[in-house]
Fold this protein.
Amino acid sequence: MEERQQIIESRSNSKISIGVIPGHFATNHSHVNHYVDMTSIKTSCKMAREAAKDLAASYSSTHIETIICLEGTEILGAFLAESLSSGGINAGSDISVITPELNANNQMIFRDNNQKKIWNKNVLLLISSASTGKSINRAVDCLQYYSGKLVAIGAIFSAIDESNGIGVHSIFKGTDLPAYSTYLPAECPMCKAGKKVDALVNSFGYSKL
């Protein structure tokens, strides 16, 4: 599978790249025809810093007090907070960076000691990949429990342009992967054609079948 991987560089910064592998992949709520590998942006100090600068440019006039990190974007989130606080409307701000916990019912929650970072705060939701918007909707529901004010959504890759009435700013867009498609499992043409699933994928990576 790895031999099929292609490297795609960001149009705005050649120091930022993702890997793309064509095939048949299953997520927890959809099937996709490409696996988007964002490991380097999530784990590399240098690339995460460059990616954060790229994203921060979209929020120079958006007041942000807290960044909520989903799907392993904590390193990116920390650099994003640093970039935001270095200029624009957020210059000099001390921006909080937190991650929700999943309880026994697989619901997103925040412990009491972190809730003060959300109550009536302007929140930027940071996610690695937005293909259908379901993960964002789930996080938005959680955010409402704690009276957080969602003002921005950021992603490494997004196939959607907006969610919950808010634009999704991403480093890589669907136009960067013109052949990328996502399907409901029951409507997947690859399944109907009898093509086996290559791997199960989630925010941690992939597991071959």
